[in-house]
Amino acid sequence: MSHPYLNEEHEIFRKSLRKFLEKEAYPFYEQWENERLIPRSFWQKMGEQGYLCPDIDEKYGGSEVDWGFSVVINEELERVGSSLVGVGLHNDIVVPYITSYGNEEQKGRWLPKCTTGEIITAIAMTEPGTGSDLSNIQTTAKLDGDHYILNGQKTFITNGIQSDLVVVACKTDPNAVPKHKGISLLVVERGTPGFSRGRKLNKVGLHSQDTAELIFEDCRVPKENLLGEEGKGFLYLMEKLQQERLLVAIAAQIASEEMLKKTIEYVKSREAFGQPISKFQNTQFKIVEMATEVEMGRAFLDQLIMDHLKGKNIVTKVSMAKWKLTDIARKIATDCMQLHGGYGYMEEYEIARRYRDIPVASIYAGTNEIMKTIIAKNLGL
C-alpha cells in the first residue's frame, strides 16, 4: 500500500528498519510481553541505528529529516506489537515539547541523550482524580528560591518505570482564572529528591509497555527546568495534541491492516466441512466489510498525514480519525477473533494479543467521547 507523502528514501529507510526489527524485536517480543518490560538495550540499539528522534537538528544528534520518517517508524513498530507505543511517545510526543519550547541550554542538555536512548522520556498529565479535565489537575509547583517545590501524583504514565526525564503538567498558580492559565510544564529528571515511582500498573493489554504511577513529595525541581513560560503549559499541551492523536490513528490503522492480513491467511488455510472457511459466504462478507473499512481508513489517514506534514491545522479531522479508526480497529479485532474460532482465544495466536491491546486506544490521548465533543464544538454545534 503506497503512501503519497513518502518517496524512495523513506522506503529504503523502511526496509532497513524492518530488517533491524526482524533481528532485534520480533524474536523477543513474546518474551518482553511475559517479562512485562521492553529492555533498555532495545532503546539503545534503536538509538545507535538512528531510529530515535530522527527529525531533530543534527547538532543534537538527529538527522533533520521530515516527519514522514517518523510515520515509517511508528508503522513498523506497530506491526511488531502495540506495546512499542512508548517509543513513538518518546520520539513524537515528549521530545517535541523540548524542541519546541525548550531553551538552548535545555536542548543541549537533554536532546543528544534522547537520540541515543540514554534518556527515555515520559509526559505526566493524568492524575488519579483527573483525566480528560486537564484544567483541574491538583499537582502544584511553588517557587522557592532557585527551585520549584512539586507536590502531587500522576497515573497511567507511559514509560513510567524506565523514564529518565518526565515532562510534568502542574499548577504554578492555583488561583488563576480561568484555571488553565495556571498550568506550567516542569521537566523532572531521574534521581531528583522527592520524585519516586509507584507500582507498575497491571494492564489488560500492552503488557510489555511499562505504565506506572509517579509521586512527587516536596520534589525540588531546579527553576531552570521550567519548559517555556509559566502559565502557558495548557496552551503547549493543546498545540501538541494534534500530533499525539495522529499517532494513535496511525497505530490503529496499522493494527487493523495487520489483523485483516493475518485473518485472511488463516481463513484460507483453516478447513471446515471439507473446504477452507474462506469459501463460506459469511466469512467472505465479514472480510469484505473489514477490507473496505481498512481501505477507507487508509485514504483518510494518508490525507491527514500529508496535511500535517504541510503544517496545516487539522484538529477537527484528526479528532475524527482518532475516534473512528480506533473504533474500527476494536470492531475488526472482535470480528477477526470470531473468524479464528477457538484458536483466536489462544495466546499463541496474534489476534488474541491484538484483541487485548486495541481497546485502550479509544481511551488514551483523549477519550473518543472527548474527540466527539471537540468535533461538535468545531462544527459550531
How many helical elements? 11
Q: Runs with pLDDT <50, length 5+?
A: none
Total strands: the figure is: 10
Shape: globular
Describe this structure in words.
It is a single chain. With 381 residues, the protein is an alpha+beta fold. Helix content is 49%, strand content 15%. It is built from 11 helices and 10 strands. The strands form 3 sheets. Strands 1-4-5-8 form a 4-stranded mixed β-sheet, with helices on one face. It has a 4-stranded antiparallel β-sheet with strand order 2-3-7-6, with helices on one face. It has helices spanning 8-24, 29-35, 40-48, 68-80, 85-101, 104-116, 233-269, 281-309, 315-340, 350-357, 368-378; strands at residues 121-124, 140-144, 147-158, 165-171, 183-189, 195-200, 211-222, 226-227, 271-272, 275-276.
Index terms:
single chain; 381 residues; alpha+beta; four-stranded mixed beta sheet; four-stranded antiparallel beta sheet; 11 helices; 10 strands; 49% helix; 15% strand; globular
In short:
With 381 residues, this protein is an alpha+beta fold. It is built from eleven helices and ten strands.
